[in-house]
Amino acid sequence: MDFxxxxxxMVDCQLRPNAxxxxxxxxxxxxxxxxxxxxxxxxxLAYLDEDLPLDTIGARKMMExxxxxxxxxxxxxxxxxxxxxxxxxxxxxxxVIAQFADSVMAIDDNEDFVEMANDALADLEVGNAAxxxxxxxxxxxxxxxxxxxxxxxxxxxxxxxLFKQLKQxxxxxxxxxxxxxxxxxxxxxxxxxxxxxxxxxxxxxxLVAFEKQKTFTF
Length: 218
What we know:
Blueprint: H1 3-15, H2 23-31, E1 52-53, E2 61-62, H3 65-74, E3 82-86, H4 92-98, E4 103-108, H5 111-123, E5 129-133, E6 146-154, H6 160-164, E7 166-178, E8 181-190, E9 193-201
Helix pairs in contact: 1-2
Family: Belongs to the methyltransferase superfamily. L-isoaspartyl/D-aspartyl protein methyltransferase family.
InterPro entries: PCMT (IPR000682), SAM-dependent_MTases_sf (IPR029063)
Organism: Maritalea mediterranea
């Protein structure tokens, strides 16, 4: 399979027509080989415009390229930013963000994914990113505060822990349900508290770690 051609088609046919205008994101996703971050059997599917299952039961999926790009654009990542990438899966988004951020710390709760991510990043000589195993809701307090927290997936609710790890004027992006519709949102932390802005509709994989806890009444 001609992965280079598939990568160019992804950018030209999936990203550019869908409001991805940040040239840094387009350049990064033109260069980073997405096929390096998926299981061997799924490499021919690496550039499809849909979520890509990463395990046999489909519990974890790599986010569709277009939504990954639009969420990264929503975060307005600067070249001086320290980014926390939560639920990084096998590290593709980490590699992309590392191309235009100062540095990226990433976490995932699947140790196999963490190993695969670090191997892929090392093979590509991405020196400003590292992936650690950990509970997604905990973030990485020892590396905080962060300029940006990028949550790769749909969440029911966000823990206060993550907001505490944001710098002043820091941004957190994720997908939540707004009036029954999955939507990309951007939180901004400032002196007055945390503001929230809904940006666009986004159907992305749900993160079990951020599911709302069920309560029982008698």
